[in-house]
Specification:
- The protein is built from 6 helices and no strands.
- The protein is mainly alpha-helical.
- It has a single domain, classed as Four Helix Bundle (Hemerythrin (Met), subunit A) (Up-down Bundle), CATH 1.20.120.
- Helix 2 packs antiparallel against helix 4 and helix 4 runs antiparallel to helix 5.
- 27% of the residues are buried.
């Protein structure tokens, strides 16, 4: 009987010690923001370079050039999203942050679609996609207002 108690006590002690590191490593909203903002800042700086003059290119009828710019921005945002997926999410906000990352995925898809429409010479179709892009960005940003992101806010109006 005492051997069983000893084994049981050892099992409980091991289980409780195993739980301590996971509690200590629990992600917080602050730690998520601290990890996410540098990723978003890098993406924003890349987009500033890639999308510089995109609006003017569309207005001037240089649709192929604008298309390449948008497709480049989509690649950069996709890379940033992949990195953001690796950042540990706070359990309390996990569902909301997952939905936010899904919104970013939609932004990537909309940027790609807009770029492809511009490549095909469909300026009106691209303008409709830009409206959808802005609407999706607003919905996505609203999901994480509590985080008060500076760089992780999506703002296509800056470039398009």
């Amino acid at each position: 009987m005492s051997g069983r108690k000893l084994v049981m006590l050892f099992a409980i002690a091991t289980a409780s010690l195993g739980a301590v590191p996971s509690i200590a490593a629990e992600a917080t909203p602050e730690s998520f923001k601290e990890a996410a903002e540098p990723i978003c800042k890098t993406n924003r700086e890349a987009n500033e370079k890639v999308l510089d003059g995109a609006r003017q290119n569309v207005q001037a009828g240089k649709l192929k050039k604008a298309s390449g710019q948008l497709l480049g921005a989509a690649r950069a945002l996709k890379r940033a999203r992949t990195q953001l997926l690796g950042v540990p999410k706070p359990t309390a906000d996990s569902a909301r942050l997952t939905k936010w990352l899904k919104g970013i995925k939609s932004e990537v898809e909309l940027l790609e679609s807009t770029g492809l429409k511009l490549a095909d010479g469909d300026k009106n179709g691209a303008m409709r996609m830009i409206i959808r892009l802005k609407s999706n960005a607003n919905q996505t940003n609203n999901l994480v207002l509590d985080y008060e992101f500076r760089y992780c806010r999506i703002n296509p109006s800056e470039f398009l």
